[in-house]
Fold each of these.
Amino acid sequence: MTDQKPIGKLAVRAATKGAKRDAKKRELAESAIEALKRYGYANTTLRDIAAQSDFSLGMLHYYFENKEQLLIYCVRLYKERFAAEISARIAGADTRESLFRAFAEGLAAAIVEDADTHRLWYDIRNQALFDPVFQPVVTEIEASLIGLVAQIAGEGASGASIQVLYGAVDGVFRHLLEGQIAGNRRGIPDLAEEFCAVLALAR
């Protein structure tokens, strides 16, 4: 019994150390996202990220093997946050119409409030067509996004129809995002109507 106490303390110490490491990685990633979303993957180096943050280049290399690993962590982090925000919006919907509306408004808000960050998602998705290191995380994130669309489509929807609806929503999202970034500024209610029109395919 007495031997278990030191082991317990070591386990707690290891868990605390792991939590601190995870917190530091998240802090580094948050800082890196600001640089990556502004300049894109190809035009940003770890040195650029270090220069725009309070972290040294050595610290970035300590937590991330290379720029690719940092980018994967960043994209996974913000897409998880995006999916959580959308899920929270649709959780309170009590009718199919209110479900569509909440989803549409969530997508519209993402474009208006966080266009530069979502631009980074399309950047890495394009990179995945050429660099296999990005393919697993792109597949993982797209699966979670398709899962959100499946909730909107409803239990009776087939896998094929969910894929079609996801493709339609994604295509409209990217088109509206590009317009927003190019200066064609539109408000959340206006953009939400565009998504509602697409979601009508699920009715």
Amino acid sequence: MRKTFTAFANVVAGAAGKAQTFIIALLIVVVWAVSGPVFKWSDTWQLVINTGTTIVTFLMVFLIQNSQNRDAAAFQAKLDELLRAVETARDDFIGIEHLSVEEIESLRRMLEEETGECKDGHKAHASVERLLSRY
């Protein structure tokens, strides 16, 4: 079932991001809006668009979340591989995405303390300082 859902999510996410899909959705809204006078702006007329958009939004949330979860996991695996492959990299960072927000913030502060200080008092790496000095 997971493979089927993943394949389905990929197809829908790919289709949802295309200009043609946006144009179709826009045309549906335009047709709905133009049909307002025909249906005398009735409650049923309003309910059609409200129900349709709610259902599509509800389902798309799960498909988008699935795509984002897979993208984030793949990206993390690639970063972990780079950390593992580069000799000077600290492979202690592999898997830090599983830490709590507080632990990650603490780690971030520790890393910032290893760098130099910028003119305005916050911490920055020397290369970042050079980049900022260009502007």
Amino acid sequence: MKEATMRRSIYIEGFSHGQNPVPAASVIGNLLMTGAIFGADPATGKVVENVGEQCRLMFQNAERILSAAGGTFDDVLKMTFYSRAEVPRELINQQWIRVFPDPASRPARHVIVSDRLPASMSLQCDLFACIGERSAQSIV
């Protein structure tokens, strides 16, 4: 395999997909794709019960994954959220605005309502990011 196309697995402390042999994210070149990111407390590795806290920790874990790969929320191109029907969209919006305060520089987003999440989870997300140098040039 060529050096430029080597895949690198990203793992972070206190976050895993249980017994499944799955990293938190995978990077090839400057492209990062995550698996499911959820509201696990990094100190215990367990999903917290409170849905607001799950949402806050989900974004915190996303930030930790990005950081472990050498990126930030500025590198995110799209996030997809999966939530139970009873989860207020406002919980996601509060964290969204906190990490993406500039309306002119927010990634694409999609929210899917699902009743197929693991029993302990009210919501989860995944993301796609392009990590590395940013061009000062705008596309017209």
Amino acid sequence: MELRQLSYVEAVARYGGFTRAAERLHVAQSAVSAQIRALEAELGLALFARTTRKVALTPAGELFVARARRVLAELDGARTEISEITAVVSGRVSIGATAHLGPYDLPQALARFRDRFPGIALRLRSGLLTGLLGAVDAGELDLVVGPVHGALPARFDALPLTDEQLLLALPLGHTLARSGRLTLGEARDEPFVSLPAGNGLRWILDDAARSAGFTPRVEFESATVAGIRELVAAGLGVGLLSRAVAEGAHGPAVAVRHLHPTPVHPPIGVMHSRDRPLSPAAQSCRHHLVEVAGRQSDPSHRHSGDEPE
């Protein structure tokens, strides 16, 4: 018994005749007839009752076709699964990432993914969140890793990777550095160091200060949060920094204090378009990024960088 014989029997039963079955299978009718006769001879019974007008299944044929369809369905399922596995091991994933991802170690996560799937080509682009999401819309990127703001457009889906906390960074020896937990309002008379207007961290500072009843006096702007830490350490002002940056091993020492209420920093997550299905390779990468997020809660994984825009 051969697989093609099962396919031929199923096709004749489905299309009601040898001629139609042969047309759908793109083979000669004589080949279909010969293979089914050979199968009937092997089984020792007729599967079809043939007349000059039609071809009908015999009772034995009905039982056989039911079994054959289950076998063929299982084989189709196996082909699909194998095809998906092949796509995963040979695909390509383009990822965008904002410069600062809090405690989430994206390079480590991607290195582990490449070890698991060495045949998948990875491409990483850094940039501002708005531009990266635009690249997803344009089909240039599959995934974006960055801050998931509440205003994220509904056309994007997001899964959280890690939370981040904002602290007030002050020069060593500053009067407020001797206090315990502060309110942001207690720093209302201090010069602030921040990112330029229009960036995520600057928006958070402005919003938190507004809630505290004042407008922050930003005297120094930096293009990076690493630069904010350097300016604060030099005594030029105070500033909001994520905990990963303020307490990170890289950079000059600063004093840090918790704020009450704590300004809300958006969680870091992985985003993709709801309008365009992810490839098997991109799906595997997205799942992997979420999977390893829990393993990176150890403080030794934290690193500094640029604040998300």
